[in-house]
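hey so i finally got around to running the thing on that chain from the lab meeting. sorry it took forever, my laptop kept dying and i had to restart like 3 times. anyway pasting the input first so we r on the same page abt which one it is
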Amino acid sequence: MKYKCLVLDHDDTVVNSTATIHYPCFVKYLEDKYPHLVGNYTLESFYEKNFHPGVISLFRDEIGMTDEEMAAEEHYWAEFVEKIVPEAYPGMREIITDFRARGGYVAVVSHSLTRYIERDYRENSLPAPDIIYGWDIPRDRRKPSPWCINDLKERYSLAGEEILVVDDLKPGYDMARGGGAHFAAAGWAHNVESIERFMRGNCDYYLKRTEELSELLF
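ok and heres what got predicted. didnt touch it at all, straight out
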């Protein structure tokens, strides 16, 4: 195989979660805490804010949350996510299974908590990843930092070009570029024109269907 390590984002790459879980949670939180802002964010604009500048900047710089309010929101979000298991996209089980069967390493780098990633893989009958870097790692190691890519290179004796990152958002792109890995944009979760335009113009690959990821890998 061209790539020896497949680095998967979780939300909207492996599982369909923003439209079904994270955006509804965000709206419900605004209704409870910031009702004057409820009409400001559509699902499309929420995707765009997560794409750039990212959810932390959205909360802190745009909505104006303090560190204490952000911690409260994280607790609220964790309780919301606890109740709903997102569905894996068709084809992801086969892709991960085949990649592992051919000797490849599978890592998950995500802004979701590790326990929910593990649950989602288990409940969707996906093969367990070799390693997970979730939201619970230190903040300075999370995407867009290239720390996870550099750790994978050292851990598995890999060169950057042997690693393929698959992600739907810019923090994953920035992480891949910073670590010297190749990047494939997962475009199957949404049809947001501004995101697709950036990804098509900057990424190594833009994939609109999971079948295209399978074709790329195998």
